Amino acid sequence: MSDITAEQIKAARAALGWTIIDIAEATKIGSATLKRYEATSGVPHSRKGHLTKLRAYFEAAGIEFVGTPNDAPGIRIHAQGGDRDKER
């Protein structure tokens, strides 16, 4: 499942201490797109597989997405990744 919510994206980014610019550079997803995703509520409208790419990127850093978009969406943190090298 690739659907993650805006709230989960914001929580994952905050838990890792990463900026939107950090994520944009690492994933090649535009910073304006990432800002738009975070400014919405629920699952952001996405094309080009961006949500799948974001999910994989956060999961590689130790974030687990729990729940579903409609039932208690959240995150679990399995590793401290805030200062690790962001695989670019």
From TrEMBL:
InterPro entries: Cro/C1-type_HTH, Lambda_DNA-bd_dom_sf
Protein name: Helix-turn-helix transcriptional regulator
Protein's organism: Altererythrobacter litoralis
